[in-house]
């Protein structure tokens, strides 16, 4: 399988998040962030959904973000490995609480600012373009405890202050930005996506959409500030994508699939088209949801839309209106889905659907007519390190190869794609489960689920495969 369709200057690389890689969770003046309260084990899911018992870590509980893979201290070593693979781009996130430890501080934390200065300088030294997410499942805990996080309009101001600070600081180093990682995740994991904590009697649906409005306004303000401060920058939004197939050609199933997709498209419709779509307004009316908007919000959303659409793609989904069929709902990648009998699954039950990648890319481009950026795609699997220090991950190569072929096909279809940063180029903590054994990387990190290990890095077989992919600009898959 080969392709010569990838454009010159295509941004090949990988993607990580601060909270899953950096560790050093209170070092350099950093404050607590929401992910620092996500434990391992069964309780993790309850917290991600908004049931939070404590705003400080509990003694005796393991929190994988606290050390992660120690990228904070080892980034030069890791970036050298990425450079060896030939990366053109690395997607990272900035930890909000490293810059403003409490979120509402009057002045930023210089040690945090300097860390990212050094990180971006190291990337540029290796001719790797930083692609920076401003908020990747990351809210300073103080903002959650004091203001109720994104349910409170005050967060818009704090986020704008944070965004302007980093734009001014890194305007000569970073030209690609994204506002909120997988912004639609707010509806599915509200504490992860927006730092929302619920109490008995809360109208959770209304609170989630109110928080969403605040994030959408904050995103527009960030776009405005980015364009004003960095004239040659591109700033995008980011969607947890994946088309929803109807289980049958029953029109009810088809309509249900459309409605499921619109739950996610809503966020990008606003960020890309600049206004609330009619179907969202109807949803609010039908469900008696009151979303408070300030004067000027609509104009702000309309006048400051994103330059490109970033998206993650791991799996497609299936929906049905048949109660018997709905008994077969599974939980791949947070989004519930009816089992698809035509697709294989990963070890974690996520459907493997390369052709769905092409379908999703075409769907997004047809809808928005803006450049796309594939900023996450990969396979979480259990890898075995041999006594010789090798990992023979042919299953990962096979997964990625099939997805790259379909991405190539989507480019032939006329879809404009800026780049591909696979998730994650080095083993990091799993966002959903908190595990280390759920590995995505081309580089193995010696650490297990209990936190044991040397953190030594080893190149997997896929490391050498991806290097050839980049060398040939996707011609040799």
Automatic annotation (TrEMBL):
Keyword DNA-binding listed? The answer is no
Q: Does the keyword Hydrolase apply?
A: yes
Which key words tag this protein in UniProt? Glycosidase, Hydrolase
Catalytic residues (UniProt): 376 (nucleophile)
- A Pfam family per the record: Glyco_hydro_1
Family to which this protein belongs: Belongs to the glycosyl hydrolase 1 family.
**Name under which the protein is recorded:** 6-phospho-beta-glucosidase
Q: Which organism is it from?
A: Metabacillus herbersteinensis
């Amino acid at each position: 399988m080969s392709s010569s369709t990838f454009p010159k200057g295509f941004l090949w690389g990988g993607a990580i998040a601060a909270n899953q890689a950096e560790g050093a969770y209170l070092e350099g003046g950093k404050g607590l962030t929401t992910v620092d309260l996500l434990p391992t084990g069964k309780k993790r899911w309850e917290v991600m959904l908004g049931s939070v018992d404590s705003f400080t870590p509990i003694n005796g509980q393991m929190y994988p973000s606290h050390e992660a893979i120690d990228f904070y201290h080892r980034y030069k070593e890791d970036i050298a490995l990425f450079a060896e693979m030939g990366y053109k781009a690395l997607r990272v996130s900035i930890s909000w609480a490293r810059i403003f430890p409490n979120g509402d501080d009057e002045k930023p934390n210089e040690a945090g600012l300097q860390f990212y200065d050094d990180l971006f300088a190291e990337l540029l030294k290796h001719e790797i373009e930083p692609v920076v997410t401003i908020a990747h499942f990351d809210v300073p805990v103080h903002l959650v405890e004091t203001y109720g996080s994104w349910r409170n309009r005050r967060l818009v101001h704090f986020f704008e202050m944070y965004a302007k600070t980093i734009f001014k600081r890194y305007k000569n180093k970073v030209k690609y930005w994204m506002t909120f990682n997988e912004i639609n995740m707010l509806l599915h994991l509200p504490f992860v996506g927006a730092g929302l904590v619920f109490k008995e009697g809360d109208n959770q649906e209304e609170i989630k959409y109110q928080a969403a409005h605040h994030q959408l306004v904050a995103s527009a303000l960030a776009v405005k500030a980015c364009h004003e401060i960095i004239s040659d920058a591109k700033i995008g939004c980011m969607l947890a994508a994946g088309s929803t197939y109807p289980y049958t050609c029953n029109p009810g199933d088809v309509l249900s699939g459309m409605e499921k997709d619109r739950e996610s498209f809503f966020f990008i419709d606003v960020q890309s088209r600049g206004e609330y779509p009619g179907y969202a307004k109807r949803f609010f009316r039908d469900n008696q949801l009151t979303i408070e908007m300030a004067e000027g919000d609509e104009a702000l959303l309309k006048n400051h839309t994103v330059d490109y659409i970033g998206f993650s793609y791991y799996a497609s989904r299936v929906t049905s209106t048949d109660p018997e069929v709905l008994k077969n709902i599974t939980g791949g990648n947070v989004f519930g889905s009816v089992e698809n009998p035509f697709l294989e699954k990963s070890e974690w039950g996520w459907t493997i659907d390369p052709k769905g990648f092409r379908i999703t890319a075409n769907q997004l481009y047809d809808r928005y007519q803006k450049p796309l950026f594939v900023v996450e795609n990969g396979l979480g699997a259990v890898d075995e390190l041999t006594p010789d220090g090798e990992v023979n991950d042919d299953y990962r190569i096979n997964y990625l190869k099939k997805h790259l072929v379909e991405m190539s096909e989507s480019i032939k279809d006329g879809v404009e794609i800026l780049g591909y940063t696979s998730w994650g180029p080095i083993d990091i903590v799993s966002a959903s489960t908190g595990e280390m054994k759920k590995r995505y990387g081309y580089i193995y990190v010696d650490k297990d689920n209990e936190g044991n290990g040397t953190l030594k890095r080893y190149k997997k077989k896929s490391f050498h495969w991806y290097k050839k992919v980049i060398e040939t600009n996707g011609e040799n898959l």
